[in-house]
From TrEMBL:
It comes from the Bacteria. This is Mechanosensitive ion channel. GO terms for cellular component: membrane. Residues 190-256 form the Mechanosensitive ion channel MscS domain. Pfam families: MS_channel_2nd. The chain crosses the membrane at residues 20-43, 90-111, 141-162, 168-187. GO terms for molecular function: mechanosensitive monoatomic ion channel activity. It comes from Neorhizobium lilium.
Length: 373
């Protein structure tokens, strides 16, 4: 191989060195593009009948593969071209950076494809999706943490190829104590969220699509990243909260152990309304509703007040949106029933007249004095 390179250089010695180098590197570049096209077609045919992971890996790995092949062909071209030692050193350095970038890029792409294929088996739109939400949440958090690590290691490997950075790294190790304290203080918010993400992935106080009440707002967990959580509120607003919030602050999780919930409807009625009639009507309403899961329905008198009695109605549904709609349906149909059948049963203020003894006595005295006159 070395003999062929020397022979090529002797044959082109009459040309300017820069022109030969440019021509060799340009030829290496175009040869790399041709090899990439052939290789991509070959791999596409090989995985044509394979599972989704391999087909996606070839499709998404097209650009990393191109960069890898170009790095290889250009490195061969740099070996053949009549470059000075400084020029060859610079080109080898750039090509090594490209190689490290290809490795990190490929690892990140393969991780994302594998996780996407793995999560396809879980359906978040199912009625009872607790298992799916558990796997999706854990997998996405761990994927994002792994992606951050891959990117960090790739950047570190690229920076360590520079002598100045290597010298700085040695100095940093020599003063690891002070530097560690300074770096820890500077990165405290980032590290806090990273460790909170690991804790969330293990303990899972929240999951994707969980129904939460945070900061007095109701919503569903829409996205969990490596540093923050996106909660989609009922009116389509988005609340952005850091991961550490769900470790340090109290919040309500309505779907922690399951999606099914019991909804409450409070109504205040006059004492003259028969409770049994209300109970029968509520049972009729929920039995005819497609939102009820046929598990819980109850009507209870929970309090007596000065002018009304407090009636609590309980009904269950498969998830939080259905519970809300079921409560609204019960209210609408029950108030229509009361207006029609027990109009007097709505809360009212009673006023009753009573005889005034003092007033009656004064009237009698006035009548007696008029008779004397």
């Amino acid at each position: 191989m070395r003999h062929l390179i020397d022979e090529f250089r002797n044959e082109t010695a009459w040309l300017p060195a820069w022109l030969v180098s440019f021509g060799v590197l340009a030829a290496a570049f175009f040869i790399g593009l041709m090899i990439h096209r052939i290789a991509f077609r070959f791999f596409s045919r090989v995985v044509e009948k394979r599972d989704l992971f391999w087909r996606s890996l070839v499709s998404r790995g097209r650009r990393p593969l191109r960069l890898a092949i170009l790095t290889w062909t250009l490195s061969l071209g740099a070996t053949v071209a009549p470059l000075t030692s400084d020029q060859a050193s610079i080109i080898r350095h750039v090509l090594f950076l490209g190689f490290v970038l290809v490795v990190g890029w490929t690892a990140r792409t393969a991780l994302h494809i594998w996780m996407t294929v793995y999560l396809r088996r879980f359906k978040l739109d199912a009625e009872d999706n607790l298992l799916a939400r558990t796997h999706v949440t854990q997998s996405r958090i761990l994927e994002r943490i792994a992606q951050v690590l891959i990117i960090g290691v790739t950047i570190a490997m690229m920076l360590l190829t520079f002598p100045a950075v290597q010298q700085y790294g040695v100095s940093l190790l020599a003063s690891a104590g002070v530097a560690g304290i300074v770096l820890g203080l500077a990165l405290q918010p980032v590290l806090k969220n990273v460790f909170a993400g690991i804790q969330l992935a293990i303990t899972q106080p929240i999951r994707i699509d969980d129904a939460l009440i945070v900061e007095g707002e109701w919503g569903n967990v829409e996205e969990i990243t490596s540093t923050y959580v996106v909660v989609k509120l009922w009116d389509w607003r988005r609340m952005i909260l850091p991961l550490s919030y769900f470790i340090e602050q109290p919040f309500q999780n309505w779907t922690r152990e399951g999606a099914a919930l019991i909804g409450t409807v409070m109504i205040y009625l006059d004492y003259s309304v028969p409770v049994e009639a209300i109970r029968r009507k509520v049972e009729e309403i929920v039995a005819g509703s497609t939102l009820w899961d046929k598990r819980v329905v109850a009507v209870q008198v929970t309090d007596f007040r000065e002018t009304t009695m407090e009636v609590r109605i309980l009904a269950s549904a498969n998830n939080a949106p259905k519970v809300f709609d079921l409560r609204c349906e019960i209210r609408e149909k029950l108030i229509e029933f009361i207006q029609r059948e027990y109009r007097h049963g709505l809360p009212r203020v009673r006023t009753e007249g009573a005889a005034d003894p003092n007033g009656a006595m004064a009237t009698e005295m006035l009548r007696h004095s008029s008779l004397q006159a």
